[in-house]
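Lecture 7 notes: from sequence to structure.
We start with the chain below.
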Amino acid sequence: MFVPTNGLVALGAFGFGVLIALVGGLYPAYRAAWEPPVESLRG
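Predicted structure tokens for the same chain:
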């Protein structure tokens, strides 16, 4: 198991993970917000 010796490294890795998760969740939500509901139901 990787144990960072510096707390700043762990904080940076956590922040990077949060950023990736936000982009991964917000981008599809943004696209779906502009799509007509009927198109979403059709697939």
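Points to note: The two ends are 42 Å apart (CA to CA). The chain has one domain: 7-42.
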